[in-house]
Amino acid sequence: MAIESESDNSETATSNVTILKSLHEKGIHYKEIIGKGTFSSVRCAWHDEMKQNVALKIIDTSSNSDFIVRFLPREKIIVQQLNHANIIKNFEIINEEPYVCFIQEYAMHGDLLQRIKKNDRIDEEEGRFYFRQLIEALTYLKSISIAHRDIKCENVLLDNCDNVKLSDFGFARFMNADEVSHTFCGSRAYVAPELLRSCPYNGFLADIWSAGILLYVMVTGFMPYDDRNITKMLEKQLQHRITFPRRRNLSVEVKELIYSMVHPEPLKRRPYHEVILSTWLADTKYELRSEPFSQKSD
């Protein structure tokens, strides 16, 4: 199945003039919109005091929706505790009713889905670099008892040196290692089968599944399952069936890794430390690029 972006509600793009004026007075000068969601918009902006571009994630809280009431307070707490090179840094949170504005690190090279669409897919050599960084970020989150619960290509950003920056902690929550959750979170194409079945689930094990789906999308340029038919998709997932496009000529090692991460039984999914030691990833040293990256023109 080809990759499609989820539709967004554009109303928020034009409804936050008040907060933008307030930010301007604080020396934060907004530029273009770089992302939109149901309750939020994301803009690039120039920060006078920091002397750099930042990202403004502006959330309209006036709807009092379930997301605003339940998830936004969590997100505000979580993002202020994160400190990892492969996770988007949050500099400040500004509350100006009815808006909440997260001032965050700006990832100038967009997201992983945009890169995949531009290049048709990510070759395995480059994919190893990105995936190693993502697994480091997820390992860190688990070490501080945070499950992300919305791992997907759109939430993996790329900075000016082309390093991975995991973003969007709107569905994240603190969890104990053996704790279960009951709330459906994430995108259908990426969520684990236990969520589709409305079963209690472990957020960390669900994140492993989603990371496996992300790896598939990255190296093939396709979605592994057709989420337009949930029943058929779930049937394939529970049978532990996944098909790889022959024309991509993927290595056995990457296919084995993906297969081990999308096991229908959560406890049988390959944990992060074993992902790092897998044949496909074992020789990939964790590192950060320090030279500015220049994308080739189409």
Number of helices: 9
Instruction: Say how many strands there are.
Output: 9
Terminal CA distance: 24 Å
**Any idea what the radius of gyration is?**
19 Å
Secondary-structure element string: HEEEHEEHHEEEEHHHHH
Question: For the residues shown, what is the average pLDDT?
Answer: 93
Stated plainly, the CATH topology of the largest domain is called Transferase(Phosphotransferase), domain 1
Looking at the chains present, what oligomeric state does this protein adopt? single chain
In CATH's first tier, which class of the largest domain applies? Answer: Mainly Alpha
Biggest β-sheet: strands ordered side by side in the sheet: 1-2-3-5-4
Q: Shape from CA axes?
A: globular
Relative strand content: 15-25%
The major pleated sheet works out as: 5 strands, antiparallel
Structurally, the number of domains stands at 2
| Helix-strand category | alpha+beta
Poorly predicted runs are: 5-14
For CATH, the homologous superfamily of the largest domain is named as Transferase(Phosphotransferase) domain 1
GO biological process, one term: intracellular signal transduction
Keywords: ATP-binding, Kinase, Nucleotide-binding, Serine/threonine-protein kinase, Transferase
GO molecular function, one term: tau-protein kinase activity
Protein name: CAMK/TSSK protein kinase
